[in-house]
């Protein structure tokens, strides 16, 4: 799979997951009484956050791949590439 396709896949999965979490919180949880509503609300928030994590992971993978292509000598999460030979 090419890099743009992988990036798009992370975005699609992340957005779908986040929207599912928001739907749980905004549409499903209010239909229940207090305790089940609170539990579903918490689950929905966690699912929505999980979707954002998936998107962030995809962006991190893309940045890492680009830095490797550009010849960086260290991982992109370090402060700056090592310029020594």
What topology does this entry show?
Elements: H1 3-28, H2 34-69
Tally the helices: what do you get? Answer: 2
Describe the global form. elongated
**How is the quaternary structure best described?**
single chain
Q: How would a crystallographer describe the biggest sheet? A: none
Q: Please give the alpha-carbon distance between the first and last residues.
A: 33 Å
Measured as a percent range, the helix fraction is over 70%
- Alpha-beta classification: mainly alpha
Following the backbone from N to C, one meets helices and strands in this order, namely HH
Summarize the structure in short.
This protein is an all-alpha fold and 85 residues long. It has one domain. Helices cover 73% and strands 0% of the residues.
Which features would summarize this protein structure in a list?
85 residues; mainly alpha; 2 helices; 73% helix; 0% strand
Protein architecture, described:
- There is one protein chain.
- With 85 residues, this protein is an all-alpha fold.
- It has one domain (3-69).
- It contains two helices and no strands.
- It has helices at 3-28, 34-69.
- The radius of gyration is 19 Å and the shape is elongated.
- The two termini are 33 Å apart.
């Amino acid at each position: 799979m090419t890099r743009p396709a992988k990036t798009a896949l992370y975005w699609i999965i992340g957005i779908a997951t986040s929207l599912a979490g928001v739907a749980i919180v905004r549409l499903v949880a209010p239909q229940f009484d207090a305790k089940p509503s609170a539990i579903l609300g918490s689950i929905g928030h966690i699912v929505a956050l999980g979707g954002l994590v998936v998107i962030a992971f995809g962006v991190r993978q893309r940045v890492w791949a680009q830095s490797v292509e550009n010849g960086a000598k260290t991982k992109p999460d370090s402060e700056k590439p090592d310029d020594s030979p």
